[in-house]
Write a structure and sequence with these properties.
Strand 1 and strand 2 form a beta hairpin. The chain has a two-stranded antiparallel ribbon with strand order 1-2. Helices cover about 70% and strands about 5% of the residues. The protein is built from 9 helices and 2 strands; from the N terminus they run H-E-E-H-H-H-H-H-H-H-H. The protein has one domain. By secondary structure, it is mainly alpha-helical. Keywords: Membrane, Transmembrane, Transmembrane helix.
Amino acid sequence: MRDDALTLGALAAGAACVAALAHEAVGHGTACLIEGGRVTLLTATFFGCEGGGVLTDMAGPFGGLTAGLVALLVQNRFRSAAWRYFCAMLAAFSLCWFAGGFVYSPLTGHGDHATVAYQLRAPDIWRVASLITGIVLYGLFQPLMVRGFRRIAAPDDPPGMLSRRVGVGQAAGAVGLGLAGFGYPDSLLLGALQGFLAIGLAAVPMWLAVASVARRRERQGISVARSRSWIVSMTALWIAFVAIQGTNLLGGG
């Protein structure tokens, strides 16, 4: 049985929204309030806090990491193929986003880790340390992503089916978050690019896990069939995400 691409895309776009919500709103936003700060910017991939400190800057990545780990913990509790797929993509997006931040910041001088380094007046060696940490994390996360993808790979999948299943999800997640990024007030194109890269580029190493699962016989998943309820609910989630977080509606200006 073949997957329904529209349902896969809707699920993955919803997973990308949840990953961004966990990182920006829950992670950064909660820490900002705890530190007594005021949220001044909250979009798909950008956050600003007046009065926030190191805790606020680091809470975003760890909020996303938590979302990814929780998704893996609960994935096997669901019998639904759609739920398992949603959890697998949420875990992969979140874990790769977390690891990717350690690579992105030293290379560009921007991002959460760069901001923390500047606040702490860290010596320039932080760039090397951060880059190495990111690469190591990508490696450490491979077994976790293998576990998630193994639960969405069906025993009777023809060659290439898992790659198609994940590829549709990554494309939908990257496009979905990229479109949501147009709400960044300082630069629509920069916001869209950041949203796209958070899934489209940062999650590329997850394909090592996909390749690993494709070589294994132990698989626990089934195909994802067309589901109108999932398509509608995930579309509604994406629209709500764009309207509220994507447009900086909750930012203080």
